[in-house]
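Severity: low
Component: inverse-folding endpoint
Summary: output formatting inconsistent between runs
Steps to reproduce: submit the following structure tokens with default settings.
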């Protein structure tokens, strides 16, 4: 299983205003998973975009950059109203987990101490691994890991989260180079997001071209990695990941 690319129609942790048009230009690319943030588009426009994504056979993701229970629950309600498959982000609360279970939404909360927007991740690696294991026991479907937003050793954090937690991990944010893609390809989290880097042209010219380049790179047989780290791949249920 190769890591899944989740294309985020976002820049600097905010949904781009022309998200619908960008998706239309890129709907025939190789990416299956698509999403954006809870701000700043009105819910009616979010519903329109997600409905179009569904028409095109895509899996849909809403990432909520909010840290209080009320904000997180509001984001979950938006995800349900939009028919999203996956809710990423929010700090974990039982109320959000229960809401997602009731509405058949895959829930992948943040771990660690999140501050600001664009978000920064703080905390020890050990405490985040412990938190992820605890959240797994509560029934969450996966973890939204701001790996490259971490203020310490990002690669060690990502590697430990994948190898030690036994839960699907999505590495979100700041994957903006082939060097980082090589590391993602080696460690093999369940998924990773790219948003701003596509709009900044980090992987080519047009967004559609960049999406296909990233998909091809991840799915290629290339084995030369920047920083080899020995990890044991976590077990992922294919039915969930598919």
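Observed output (run 2 of 3):
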């Amino acid at each position: 299983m190769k890591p899944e690319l989740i294309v985020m129609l976002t820049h600097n942790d905010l949904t781009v205003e022309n998200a619908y048009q960008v998706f239309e230009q890129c709907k025939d690319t190789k990416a299956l998973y698509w999403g954006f943030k809870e701000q700043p588009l009105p819910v009616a426009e979010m519903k329109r975009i997600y409905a179009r994504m569904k028409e095109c056979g895509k899996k849909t993701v809403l990432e909520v950059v909010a840290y209080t229970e009320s904000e997180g629950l509001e984001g979950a309600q938006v995800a349900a109203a939009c028919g999203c498959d996956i809710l990423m982000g929010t700090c974990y609360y039982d109320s959000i987990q229960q809401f997602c279970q009731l509405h058949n939404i895959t829930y992948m909360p943040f771990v660690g101490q999140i501050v600001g927007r664009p978000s920064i991740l703080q905390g020890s690696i050990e405490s985040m691994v412990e938190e992820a294991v605890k959240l797994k026991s509560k029934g969450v479907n996966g973890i939204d890991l701001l790996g490259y937003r971490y203020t310490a050793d990002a690669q060690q954090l990502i590697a430990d989260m994948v190898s030690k937690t036994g839960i699907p991990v999505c590495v979100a944010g700041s994957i903006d180079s082939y060097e980082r893609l090589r590391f993602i390809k080696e460690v093999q989290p369940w998924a990773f997001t790219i948003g701003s880097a596509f709009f900044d042209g980090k992987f080519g010219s047009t967004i559609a071209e960049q999406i296909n380049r990233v998909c091809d790179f991840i799915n290629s047989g290339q084995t030369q990695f920047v920083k080899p780290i020995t990890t044991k791949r976590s077990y992922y249920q294919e039915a969930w990941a598919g």
